[in-house]
Design a protein that fits this description.
58% of the residues lie in helices and 0% in strands. The chain has helices at residues 16-42, 46-51, 56-60.
């Protein structure tokens, strides 16, 4: 017969879960910032994009670094 000890302490580093959530939140924030920027740039006319040195293709490929 085997027994499982549910009372033994778990060996999980205290910051591991928080670090994972922080990275996930940061990735989501970066994605959302890029999405909002693409949306704003898409609303500009071709002339306005040309004034700031961008093309429609640049807007479609925009990523925040």
């Amino acid at each position: 017969m085997s027994a499982i000890d549910f009372n033994s302490p778990r060996h999980i580093e205290p910051g591991v879960v928080g670090l994972g959530l922080t990275r996930m939140f940061s990735a989501f924030t970066a994605w959302n910032d890029a999405r909002a920027t693409r949306k704003a740039l898409s609303a500009l006319t071709d002339r306005e994009l040309e004034d700031i040195g961008l093309t429609r293709g640049d807007v479609a490929n925009f990523r925040i670094r």
